[in-house]
Design a protein that fits this description.
One of its GO terms (biological process) is error-prone translesion synthesis. This protein has 348 residues and is an alpha+beta fold. The chain has 13 helices and twelve strands.
Length: 348
Amino acid sequence: MSLLHADADCFFASVELQRRPELADRPVAVATHIVMSATYPARARGVRGAMPLRQALKLCPELVVLPPQADYQSAGEALMGLFWRFAVQVEPGSMEEAFIDPGDADPVATAAAIRAAARDELGLPVTVGVARTKLLAKLASRRAKPDGLLVITGTEEARLRATLTIDDLWGVGPTTANRLADAGVTRLTELEGYDEARLRSVVGTAMARRLLSIRDGTDDATVRQLGPRRTVSASRTAMRPSSRWADIQAHADGVIDLALQRLAESHDGQAVTHRIDVQVTYADRGQWSTERRLPTATRDRNVLRRHCREMITSSGVQAADRPVLLIMVAFRLTGVSGSRQQNALPLF
């Protein structure tokens, strides 16, 4: 039985290009002063996500820079809804990618159908990997990018596992990789001879069990239902960071209204919140954050808007005289039960 890993290519840029299709073949980045997403023509010139925009423009002077203006949250929710049409279970990894269990349907045909529907209905290029386990499906989708489909068959699986390096393994971070390298392990095959007791002295129990399961081909092959969403949030990045209080207030009001809208739409309109979190990120990457617990859980828009504005006003941001880059507002939900549509991960 095979499962799928589906991942929208250059998600933020792809969403923005829906409004600017004439830029499809140009090097494009969605950015403020930091690159959020770069198209493959831009990546071919060395432009990468999280890169300072100044550096990106040096590498690619003809780079088309688009400000982040689209509703990425709604685009991600639409994508997850599309995945569910072809699945008996969907496990989101982020707002633009998910593992998909196609049930009894042919997995390759399902992958092709998902790609076609995403392109035709949402205008999004989606790459899909098909394999027996989550790790291999994710490896397949990585190797199929951009805008491709790759199937790893049972025959190919054993051959592929024998070639994997530790750096190829999804979920193995640099700290773990460095510890393994110090122990002389840089390839999956070099774990031969290790048992759990020996390996956990290097990487800990949980990671030791995971690595040994990958080595033995018994790694995770189940697409799982995530728990219900416990937080509804919204954030926006300023096109031009400003320290003017009027600009900050307008920025905050836009984020507050978007968060309230998402709260109203969550859990069939029945969600209430008992806690508000607000975070402000300055243009110099410094941050300020606070929380407020409410005496009574509520969904009343006027009450919540008033609390949010009070939190921003009393934050010290006005007196700080520092340009504000991003504002995030989050509502912690009270007494909710999940549904499949509510499992799509929020943007922030």
